[in-house]
Amino acid sequence: MRKVYIETYGCQMNVADTEVVFSILGREGYIRTEEIGEADVILANTCSIRDNAEQRILGRIGQFNIYRKARPDVIVGILGCMAERMKETLLESGKVDVVAGPDAYRRLPELLAAASQGHPQIDVILSREETYADIAPVRVDKNGVSAFISIMRGCNNVCSYCVVPYTRGAERSRDYHTIVREACDCAERGYKEITLLGQNVDSYHFGEYDFARLLALVAESVPDLRIRFSTSNPQDISDAVIETMATHANICRHIHLPVQSGSDRILEKMRRRYTRAWYLDRVAKIRALMPDCAITTDVIAGFCSETEEDHRDTLDIFEQVGFDAAFMFQYSERPGTLAAKKYPDDVAPDVKTRRLEEIIAVQNRLSLESNRRDVGKTFRVLVEGPSKRNAAELCGRNSQNKMCIWPDTAHRAGDFVDVKVKDCTQATLLCEPA
Ligand code: 5AD
Ligand code: SF4
C-alpha cells in the first residue's frame, strides 16, 4: 500500500480537484495520509494566480526535497496551475519527479509508476472534454458537513490580467445528470451543504440546461441541503439566476461577484465585459429580489496605468455597493497574459500597496457596518463545530455566509440552529440561541 499526501493551494476548484485525485489514486490502491513524513508520494496541487502564491509554493517544494533525500523512493509531484504554467522547468529543478496539469489526473497512477522507475514524468496536455464527471470525489473536508461539486472546468473569458484560461484551458460544462447524482450522494452521506464550483458558473451550459436551470434542478433534487455557488461573473449573471435564487429557499442568500475595479477605463483594459453602471444594475437587481442577499467581491489594486482617479472610482463603487466582504489584491503581472504582453506594469509597488490599504480600510468599515445591521436579527446557521476560542461555543455560517458564534453545548456539526445576533466584530456575528 503506497501512502499519498497532498497539499492543496489556491481556490476551491483546487480542493475539489484534490478530492478527484484521491479518488483516482485510491482506485489504484493508494491510501491517503495526512502525515507528510510517512508518505511515499508527496503531491502539491498548486496555484498560479499571483506571483507571491507561486513563490510560496516553490519554497515548499524545496522543503519536500528533504523527505525525498531522506528516502530516495519518495516521489514528489506537482499538480494544478503551476504544473501547467511552468511545465518542464519544474522537472529541470531536479526537485520534482512528476508534473501533471489539471486535465492529466487520470494518468497520475501511470505517471507515478513510471517515475518510481527513475523516469521523471510530465503531462500538461489540456483537454476540451475532461470534466472528471464519472469520478466520485473522496471528500477531504473533515467535518462532513459541506461538500464542493465541480460543475465546469476552464474559462473562456480571457481577462487580460488572468492566468487561469492558460492554466485550466477552455471552458467545458459537466453533464448535469452526474452533478445531480453527486448532490444526491452527498445528501445520502449526511452532508448539509453543497457548493457548485466553476471559474464562471453563469456560463454553464449542457444540453438544454443553463446555470439557472441547473441551479433549480439541484435545489429541487436535494431540498434539505443548502446550495451555494461560486464564482459568478457580473457580465453573465442573468435575471433567471437571480430569480431562481429568490424562489428557492435552500439556495443561500450570497453572491460572490468580483468587481475587480470601479473604473470603466480600467475594466476595459482588464477585458472585463461590463461597465460600472452594469455592475451597479446587477447589484440593484439582486437587492430588488433578495433584500437580504449578501454580496461579496474581489478587487485588484494597481492594475496597469491605474490613476488616482481610477482608484477613487474603485473606492467609490465599494461605498456605493457596501460589500459584505471582499478579497483584495495588488496586481501581479502573470507571464503570458494579455496584460503582460500589452501593458507595462507601471504602478509603483508602494503606490499599489497604499491603494490596497485604502481599499482594505474602506472594506473593514463596510464589513463592520454590514454586521452591525444584523444585530437583533435571527438567523438559521449550519453548525461547523466548536469555535476556535472557546469549547463551550459553536461556530457556523448563516445563509449570507457570515460566521456566527454562540454559546452552545447541545448541538454538533451538521445541525441547523436558530441564533439571534447580540453583537458583532468586523468578521463575526456574536449570537445567542434564539
Ligand atoms: N493579480 C492580482 N490579482 C489577480 N486576480 C486574478 N489575477 C490576478 C493578478 N494577475 C484576482 C482576481 C480574481 C481573484 C481570484 O484573484 O481578483 O477574481
Ligand atoms: Fe480569470 Fe476572468 Fe476567468 Fe475569472 S472569469 S478566472 S478573472 S479569466
What do you see in this structure?
The protein is of the alpha/beta class. The chain contains 14 helices and 21 strands. The strands form six sheets. The chain has a six-stranded parallel beta sheet, with helices on both faces. Strands 17-18-19-21-20 form a five-stranded mixed barrel. It binds 5'-deoxyadenosine and iron/sulfur cluster.
Jot down its keywords.
six-stranded parallel β-sheet; globular; alpha/beta; 14 helices; binds iron/sulfur cluster; 434 residues; five-stranded mixed barrel; binds 5'-deoxyadenosine
The largest sheet has its strands arranged as 2-1-3-4-5-6
What's the count of strands?
A: 21
The hetero molecules present are:
5'-deoxyadenosine, iron/sulfur cluster
- Overall morphology: globular
